[in-house]
Design goal:
The structure holds two protein chains of two kinds.
Chain A: H1 2-34, H2 38-57, H3 61-74, H4 77-85, H5 90-117, H6 121-146, H7 163-176, H8 181-214
Helix pairs in contact in A: 1-4, 2-3, 2-4, 2-5, 3-7, 5-6, 6-8, 7-8
Chain B: H1 14-23, H2 29-40, H3 44-56, H4 59-69, E1 73-74, H5 75-82, H6 86-99, E2 102-107, E3 110-115, H7 117-130
Antiparallel strand pairs in B: 1-3, 2-3
Helix pairs in contact in B: 3-6
Chain lengths: 215, 135
Protein backbone atom coordinates (compact mmCIF):
# COMPACT_ATOMS: atom_id res chain seq x y z
CA UNK A 1 0.00 0.00 0.00
CA UNK A 2 2.53 2.55 1.16
CA UNK A 3 4.96 1.40 -1.53
CA UNK A 4 2.51 2.14 -4.30
CA UNK A 5 1.70 5.48 -2.74
CA UNK A 6 5.37 6.38 -2.61
CA UNK A 7 5.87 5.47 -6.26
CA UNK A 8 2.77 7.41 -7.30
CA UNK A 9 4.00 10.35 -5.26
CA UNK A 10 7.38 10.40 -6.98
CA UNK A 11 5.72 9.91 -10.33
CA UNK A 12 3.42 12.82 -9.57
CA UNK A 13 6.34 14.95 -8.44
CA UNK A 14 8.35 14.12 -11.58
CA UNK A 15 5.35 14.93 -13.77
CA UNK A 16 4.87 18.19 -11.91
CA UNK A 17 8.52 19.18 -12.36
CA UNK A 18 8.54 18.49 -16.11
CA UNK A 19 5.15 20.20 -16.47
CA UNK A 20 6.52 23.28 -14.73
CA UNK A 21 9.55 23.47 -16.98
CA UNK A 22 7.89 22.71 -20.31
CA UNK A 23 4.44 24.26 -20.13
CA UNK A 24 4.02 26.43 -17.06
CA UNK A 25 6.96 28.74 -17.62
CA UNK A 26 6.26 29.57 -21.29
CA UNK A 27 2.53 30.10 -20.63
CA UNK A 28 3.31 32.23 -17.59
CA UNK A 29 5.56 34.30 -19.86
CA UNK A 30 2.58 34.96 -22.15
CA UNK A 31 0.39 36.05 -19.24
CA UNK A 32 3.09 38.35 -17.86
CA UNK A 33 2.81 40.41 -21.05
CA UNK A 34 -0.97 40.76 -20.59
CA UNK A 35 -0.47 42.55 -17.24
CA UNK A 36 -3.19 40.42 -15.66
CA UNK A 37 -2.74 39.60 -11.99
CA UNK A 38 -2.90 35.97 -10.84
CA UNK A 39 -6.16 36.69 -8.99
CA UNK A 40 -7.69 38.07 -12.19
CA UNK A 41 -6.73 34.82 -13.92
CA UNK A 42 -8.45 32.91 -11.12
CA UNK A 43 -11.67 34.84 -11.71
CA UNK A 44 -11.41 34.48 -15.50
CA UNK A 45 -11.01 30.73 -14.98
CA UNK A 46 -14.22 30.71 -12.97
CA UNK A 47 -15.94 32.70 -15.73
CA UNK A 48 -14.85 30.06 -18.27
CA UNK A 49 -16.28 27.35 -15.99
CA UNK A 50 -19.63 29.20 -15.82
CA UNK A 51 -19.70 29.40 -19.62
CA UNK A 52 -18.84 25.69 -19.80
CA UNK A 53 -21.64 24.87 -17.35
CA UNK A 54 -24.11 26.84 -19.48
CA UNK A 55 -23.02 24.96 -22.61
CA UNK A 56 -23.41 21.65 -20.76
CA UNK A 57 -26.90 22.65 -19.64
CA UNK A 58 -28.05 23.50 -23.19
CA UNK A 59 -26.66 20.17 -24.50
CA UNK A 60 -23.98 21.80 -26.69
CA UNK A 61 -21.79 18.80 -25.92
CA UNK A 62 -18.67 19.31 -28.06
CA UNK A 63 -18.41 23.03 -27.36
CA UNK A 64 -19.02 22.34 -23.67
CA UNK A 65 -16.26 19.72 -23.67
CA UNK A 66 -13.79 22.14 -25.26
CA UNK A 67 -14.67 25.02 -22.90
CA UNK A 68 -14.66 22.85 -19.75
CA UNK A 69 -11.31 21.35 -20.82
CA UNK A 70 -9.88 24.78 -21.57
CA UNK A 71 -11.17 26.09 -18.22
CA UNK A 72 -9.59 23.19 -16.32
CA UNK A 73 -6.24 23.82 -18.04
CA UNK A 74 -6.59 27.55 -17.44
CA UNK A 75 -6.96 26.93 -13.70
CA UNK A 76 -3.39 25.62 -13.61
CA UNK A 77 -1.89 28.87 -14.83
CA UNK A 78 -2.90 31.36 -12.14
CA UNK A 79 -0.49 29.66 -9.75
CA UNK A 80 2.15 29.56 -12.52
CA UNK A 81 1.82 33.29 -13.11
CA UNK A 82 2.00 33.96 -9.38
CA UNK A 83 5.23 31.95 -9.08
CA UNK A 84 6.72 33.51 -12.22
CA UNK A 85 6.01 37.09 -11.08
CA UNK A 86 6.77 36.46 -7.41
CA UNK A 87 3.22 37.42 -6.48
CA UNK A 88 2.50 34.18 -4.62
CA UNK A 89 0.40 34.93 -1.56
CA UNK A 90 -1.69 33.05 0.94
CA UNK A 91 -4.75 34.96 -0.18
CA UNK A 92 -3.99 34.07 -3.79
CA UNK A 93 -3.70 30.41 -2.91
CA UNK A 94 -7.00 30.62 -1.02
CA UNK A 95 -8.71 32.39 -3.95
CA UNK A 96 -7.30 29.84 -6.38
CA UNK A 97 -8.55 26.75 -4.63
CA UNK A 98 -11.86 28.32 -3.59
CA UNK A 99 -12.72 29.37 -7.14
CA UNK A 100 -11.41 26.09 -8.53
CA UNK A 101 -14.02 24.36 -6.34
CA UNK A 102 -16.71 26.85 -7.38
CA UNK A 103 -15.81 26.31 -11.02
CA UNK A 104 -16.00 22.55 -10.63
CA UNK A 105 -19.32 22.79 -8.77
CA UNK A 106 -20.94 25.00 -11.37
CA UNK A 107 -20.10 22.52 -14.15
CA UNK A 108 -21.76 19.71 -12.18
CA UNK A 109 -24.82 21.91 -11.64
CA UNK A 110 -24.84 22.35 -15.42
CA UNK A 111 -24.77 18.56 -15.73
CA UNK A 112 -27.71 18.19 -13.34
CA UNK A 113 -29.66 20.74 -15.41
CA UNK A 114 -28.72 18.90 -18.61
CA UNK A 115 -29.99 15.62 -17.19
CA UNK A 116 -33.23 17.19 -15.95
CA UNK A 117 -33.76 18.66 -19.41
CA UNK A 118 -33.42 15.12 -20.77
CA UNK A 119 -36.02 14.00 -18.18
CA UNK A 120 -33.38 11.60 -16.87
CA UNK A 121 -33.74 11.47 -13.09
CA UNK A 122 -31.06 8.79 -12.69
CA UNK A 123 -28.57 10.84 -14.69
CA UNK A 124 -29.31 13.89 -12.51
CA UNK A 125 -28.77 11.83 -9.36
CA UNK A 126 -25.47 10.55 -10.77
CA UNK A 127 -24.31 14.09 -11.52
CA UNK A 128 -25.15 15.11 -7.94
CA UNK A 129 -23.27 12.07 -6.63
CA UNK A 130 -20.25 12.93 -8.79
CA UNK A 131 -20.26 16.48 -7.44
CA UNK A 132 -20.43 15.26 -3.85
CA UNK A 133 -17.67 12.71 -4.45
CA UNK A 134 -15.46 15.32 -6.17
CA UNK A 135 -15.93 17.66 -3.22
CA UNK A 136 -15.05 14.91 -0.77
CA UNK A 137 -11.71 14.52 -2.58
CA UNK A 138 -11.00 18.23 -2.18
CA UNK A 139 -12.28 18.30 1.37
CA UNK A 140 -10.20 15.32 2.47
CA UNK A 141 -7.09 17.12 1.23
CA UNK A 142 -7.99 20.50 2.73
CA UNK A 143 -8.94 19.04 6.09
CA UNK A 144 -5.92 16.77 6.34
CA UNK A 145 -3.63 19.68 5.56
CA UNK A 146 -5.38 21.97 8.05
CA UNK A 147 -4.84 19.31 10.71
CA UNK A 148 -1.16 19.25 9.82
CA UNK A 149 -1.09 15.91 8.02
CA UNK A 150 0.83 15.29 4.83
CA UNK A 151 2.32 18.77 4.56
CA UNK A 152 5.22 18.35 2.19
CA UNK A 153 4.26 14.74 1.51
CA UNK A 154 1.79 15.70 -1.17
CA UNK A 155 -1.65 14.27 -0.45
CA UNK A 156 -2.58 16.05 -3.69
CA UNK A 157 -0.96 13.13 -5.53
CA UNK A 158 -2.70 10.42 -3.50
CA UNK A 159 -5.54 8.56 -5.14
CA UNK A 160 -6.93 7.63 -8.53
CA UNK A 161 -8.90 10.75 -9.37
CA UNK A 162 -7.49 14.14 -8.47
CA UNK A 163 -8.94 17.15 -10.29
CA UNK A 164 -6.92 16.69 -13.47
CA UNK A 165 -8.12 13.10 -13.92
CA UNK A 166 -11.73 14.07 -13.21
CA UNK A 167 -11.49 16.88 -15.78
CA UNK A 168 -10.12 14.55 -18.45
CA UNK A 169 -12.88 11.97 -17.85
CA UNK A 170 -15.55 14.68 -17.95
CA UNK A 171 -14.19 16.20 -21.17
CA UNK A 172 -14.09 12.75 -22.82
CA UNK A 173 -17.67 12.17 -21.63
CA UNK A 174 -18.87 15.52 -22.97
CA UNK A 175 -17.29 15.01 -26.38
CA UNK A 176 -18.50 11.39 -26.40
CA UNK A 177 -22.04 12.68 -25.76
CA UNK A 178 -21.99 14.05 -29.29
CA UNK A 179 -22.00 10.41 -30.44
CA UNK A 180 -24.15 8.89 -27.68
CA UNK A 181 -25.42 10.72 -24.60
CA UNK A 182 -24.95 7.54 -22.55
CA UNK A 183 -21.18 8.01 -22.87
CA UNK A 184 -21.53 11.16 -20.76
CA UNK A 185 -23.70 9.39 -18.17
CA UNK A 186 -21.11 6.60 -17.95
CA UNK A 187 -18.30 9.17 -17.56
CA UNK A 188 -20.20 10.89 -14.72
CA UNK A 189 -20.74 7.53 -13.01
CA UNK A 190 -17.03 6.77 -13.41
CA UNK A 191 -16.14 10.11 -11.80
CA UNK A 192 -18.45 9.37 -8.86
CA UNK A 193 -16.84 5.95 -8.33
CA UNK A 194 -13.20 7.00 -8.81
CA UNK A 195 -13.59 10.11 -6.64
CA UNK A 196 -15.09 8.00 -3.85
CA UNK A 197 -12.20 5.54 -4.13
CA UNK A 198 -9.81 8.51 -4.02
CA UNK A 199 -11.39 9.80 -0.80
CA UNK A 200 -10.99 6.34 0.76
CA UNK A 201 -7.35 6.22 -0.40
CA UNK A 202 -6.75 9.61 1.22
CA UNK A 203 -8.40 8.53 4.47
CA UNK A 204 -6.09 5.51 4.53
CA UNK A 205 -3.11 7.73 3.70
CA UNK A 206 -3.89 10.04 6.62
CA UNK A 207 -4.50 7.03 8.87
CA UNK A 208 -1.04 5.66 8.03
CA UNK A 209 0.48 9.04 8.86
CA UNK A 210 -1.41 9.32 12.12
CA UNK A 211 -0.11 5.89 13.15
CA UNK A 212 3.47 6.91 12.38
CA UNK A 213 3.02 10.04 14.46
CA UNK A 214 1.78 8.30 17.57
CA UNK A 215 4.50 5.61 17.36
CA UNK B 1 -67.03 15.34 -2.34
CA UNK B 2 -63.47 14.13 -2.08
CA UNK B 3 -62.01 13.99 1.40
CA UNK B 4 -58.49 12.68 1.99
CA UNK B 5 -58.37 9.42 3.95
CA UNK B 6 -57.25 9.79 7.55
CA UNK B 7 -53.98 8.05 8.35
CA UNK B 8 -54.59 4.75 10.10
CA UNK B 9 -53.47 4.63 13.69
CA UNK B 10 -53.42 0.91 14.38
CA UNK B 11 -51.20 -0.58 17.07
CA UNK B 12 -51.14 2.37 19.47
CA UNK B 13 -53.11 2.17 22.75
CA UNK B 14 -56.03 4.60 23.09
CA UNK B 15 -54.43 6.73 25.80
CA UNK B 16 -51.17 7.18 23.95
CA UNK B 17 -53.01 7.71 20.71
CA UNK B 18 -54.78 10.75 22.17
CA UNK B 19 -51.56 12.20 23.45
CA UNK B 20 -49.88 11.59 20.10
CA UNK B 21 -52.72 13.21 18.21
CA UNK B 22 -52.84 16.27 20.40
CA UNK B 23 -49.08 16.70 20.19
CA UNK B 24 -48.38 16.18 16.50
CA UNK B 25 -49.96 14.50 13.55
CA UNK B 26 -47.51 11.58 13.54
CA UNK B 27 -48.43 8.74 11.18
CA UNK B 28 -48.68 5.37 12.90
CA UNK B 29 -45.96 2.76 12.64
CA UNK B 30 -48.17 0.54 10.50
CA UNK B 31 -48.80 3.44 8.14
CA UNK B 32 -45.06 4.16 7.87
CA UNK B 33 -44.36 0.47 7.27
CA UNK B 34 -46.85 0.21 4.45
CA UNK B 35 -45.61 3.45 2.89
CA UNK B 36 -42.01 2.27 2.96
CA UNK B 37 -43.03 -1.15 1.60
CA UNK B 38 -44.92 0.49 -1.25
CA UNK B 39 -41.91 2.68 -2.10
CA UNK B 40 -39.36 -0.11 -1.83
CA UNK B 41 -41.31 -2.68 -3.79
CA UNK B 42 -44.32 -1.32 -5.63
CA UNK B 43 -46.52 -3.94 -7.27
CA UNK B 44 -45.09 -4.96 -10.65
CA UNK B 45 -48.13 -3.68 -12.48
CA UNK B 46 -47.93 -0.19 -10.96
CA UNK B 47 -44.23 -0.07 -11.74
CA UNK B 48 -44.90 -0.86 -15.40
CA UNK B 49 -47.55 1.87 -15.66
CA UNK B 50 -45.24 4.36 -13.92
CA UNK B 51 -42.40 3.48 -16.33
CA UNK B 52 -44.78 4.07 -19.23
CA UNK B 53 -45.67 7.52 -17.88
CA UNK B 54 -42.00 8.31 -17.25
CA UNK B 55 -41.23 7.52 -20.88
CA UNK B 56 -43.96 9.97 -21.92
CA UNK B 57 -43.06 12.67 -19.38
CA UNK B 58 -40.88 14.69 -21.74
CA UNK B 59 -42.00 17.21 -24.37
CA UNK B 60 -39.37 16.06 -26.86
CA UNK B 61 -40.45 12.43 -26.51
CA UNK B 62 -44.09 13.42 -26.95
CA UNK B 63 -43.17 15.35 -30.08
CA UNK B 64 -41.37 12.30 -31.44
CA UNK B 65 -44.47 10.20 -30.76
CA UNK B 66 -46.66 12.84 -32.36
CA UNK B 67 -44.60 12.59 -35.53
CA UNK B 68 -44.66 8.77 -35.39
CA UNK B 69 -48.46 8.85 -35.03
CA UNK B 70 -48.50 10.11 -38.64
CA UNK B 71 -46.59 7.03 -39.74
CA UNK B 72 -43.15 5.38 -39.51
CA UNK B 73 -40.12 7.64 -39.77
CA UNK B 74 -36.35 7.30 -39.98
CA UNK B 75 -34.14 8.67 -37.23
CA UNK B 76 -33.01 11.38 -39.65
CA UNK B 77 -36.59 12.45 -40.30
CA UNK B 78 -37.28 12.55 -36.56
CA UNK B 79 -34.11 14.57 -35.99
CA UNK B 80 -35.19 17.23 -38.47
CA UNK B 81 -38.76 17.14 -37.10
CA UNK B 82 -37.75 18.05 -33.53
CA UNK B 83 -34.73 20.10 -34.67
CA UNK B 84 -32.36 18.52 -32.14
CA UNK B 85 -29.04 16.77 -32.60
CA UNK B 86 -29.03 13.10 -33.55
CA UNK B 87 -27.53 11.88 -30.22
CA UNK B 88 -30.29 13.64 -28.27
CA UNK B 89 -32.99 12.14 -30.49
CA UNK B 90 -31.36 8.70 -30.15
CA UNK B 91 -31.29 9.10 -26.36
CA UNK B 92 -35.01 9.86 -26.26
CA UNK B 93 -35.76 7.04 -28.70
CA UNK B 94 -33.91 4.65 -26.37
CA UNK B 95 -36.26 5.69 -23.59
CA UNK B 96 -39.36 5.22 -25.73
CA UNK B 97 -38.06 1.85 -26.92
CA UNK B 98 -37.34 0.71 -23.34
CA UNK B 99 -40.95 1.49 -22.40
CA UNK B 100 -42.11 -0.44 -25.47
CA UNK B 101 -44.06 2.42 -27.03
CA UNK B 102 -41.73 2.71 -30.04
CA UNK B 103 -40.20 -0.04 -32.14
CA UNK B 104 -37.20 0.28 -34.41
CA UNK B 105 -35.94 -1.82 -37.25
CA UNK B 106 -32.97 -1.52 -39.54
CA UNK B 107 -33.47 -1.04 -43.27
CA UNK B 108 -30.08 -0.83 -44.91
CA UNK B 109 -28.31 2.17 -43.43
CA UNK B 110 -31.47 3.69 -41.99
CA UNK B 111 -33.25 2.93 -38.74
CA UNK B 112 -37.02 3.09 -39.11
CA UNK B 113 -39.14 3.86 -36.05
CA UNK B 114 -42.79 3.00 -35.60
CA UNK B 115 -45.27 3.75 -32.85
CA UNK B 116 -46.47 0.61 -31.05
CA UNK B 117 -50.16 1.41 -30.90
CA UNK B 118 -50.91 -1.92 -29.22
CA UNK B 119 -48.64 -1.10 -26.29
CA UNK B 120 -50.16 2.36 -25.90
CA UNK B 121 -53.67 0.92 -25.92
CA UNK B 122 -52.63 -1.79 -23.47
CA UNK B 123 -51.21 0.68 -20.94
CA UNK B 124 -54.20 3.00 -21.23
CA UNK B 125 -56.56 0.09 -20.58
CA UNK B 126 -54.46 -1.29 -17.70
CA UNK B 127 -54.31 2.10 -16.06
CA UNK B 128 -58.08 2.57 -16.23
CA UNK B 129 -58.54 -0.91 -14.76
CA UNK B 130 -56.08 -0.28 -11.91
CA UNK B 131 -57.74 3.02 -11.05
CA UNK B 132 -61.19 1.45 -11.28
CA UNK B 133 -62.22 3.69 -14.17
CA UNK B 134 -62.85 0.92 -16.68
CA UNK B 135 -66.49 0.73 -17.60
Amino acid sequence: MSATQDSSNSRGAAFRASFRARIEAPVAAIFIRTHLTPNMLTLIGFGIAVLGAYLVAIHAWILAGLVVGFGAAFDLFDGALARATGKSSKFGAFMDSTFDRAGEAVVYVGLVVAMIRLSDANGAALAAAAMAAAFMVSYSRAKSESLGFSSGKGIANVGLAPREVRSVILVIGLIGAAIDVRVLIAAVALIAILATVTTIQRILFVYEQSKQRTN
Amino acid sequence: MYSPPLPQRGGIPAGRRDRLQTRTNVPSRAHLRSTIAALAAPPEELRAVAAYHKALSDPTRLRLMQRLADGPATVNELTSHVDLSQPLVSFHLHRLKAAGVVETRRAGREVICTLSRDVLTHFRAREREILGLAS
